[in-house]
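Worked example 2:
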Amino acid sequence: MTETQRELAALTRKIVESSDAPWADLVKTGVVPEDPDEFGVLEHCAVLVELGRAVAAVPYLPTTLARTALAMAGRHVEPGAVLSVALAEDSTGAKTTVPFAASAEAFLVADDDRVFLVRAADLDITPQVLVDGTDAGTFRFESGELLEGVTPDWLTTRYTLGLCAFQLGVTERALELTAAYARTRVQFGRPIGAFQAVAQRLADAYIDVAAIRLTLWQAAWRLSEGLPADAEVATAKFWAADAGHRVAHTAVHVHGGTGIDMSHDVHRYFTAAKRAEFELGGATAQLLKLSAAL
């Protein structure tokens, strides 16, 4: 990462670790830039990794993605406005599990090969709660304002990459917490991390996190350079899903009974990892995308 990207990541970490109003402070400090063109793919990924490390329930990914798309269509939105994107649907046109639907002022809605801008006031939104406790919603899309120059594939590719960045942060921190627990939890007169079975699980998790990191930044770099990146994004999402699954379960298993305590931090990381694993397609879906491209 560049020095600017490292500073941006450090600022994000400081805010999410100490702020009582992280979204407002992210906007105030410029982590959510006033000009959507100020940050590129790499900068956004640097922020999302830190948000994942804190499992921060802030609408950074859908909002910044929507603002960038609106700027491409010649629209300007204030940086403090919460926006969302609606990608998932069934055959009836219903949009489901739309992130941050309760607080969003407007939505970018994908429909076939077009993207529409829809105001929240024009929708009948039914609240939902995702597996990690994040608010979401469902609504039926009927009409909206067509956005020229923005496609569903453009939105989906970048949203998928953002999920991979968030998952990297989740798994990095989950592994750190689990390794620290294994060093201090004593059983049979020794720290449990000294037992080969536990040490091997942690070593495998280390390799998995490294694979998520490598494939994420490879895909992000290609997108930032304007290079074809569909295969790289699918590869990154495969590792975010497949390896993310293993790291999340390792964190729970090594923590033992503590790992299934819903009030413990490790549970937050487990549910966040499971959401990132399946949102916009799990490991099998990504392999199918890759096989179709061969």
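Residues 12 and 197 are 36 Å apart (CA to CA). DSSP finds nine helices and nine strands in the chain.
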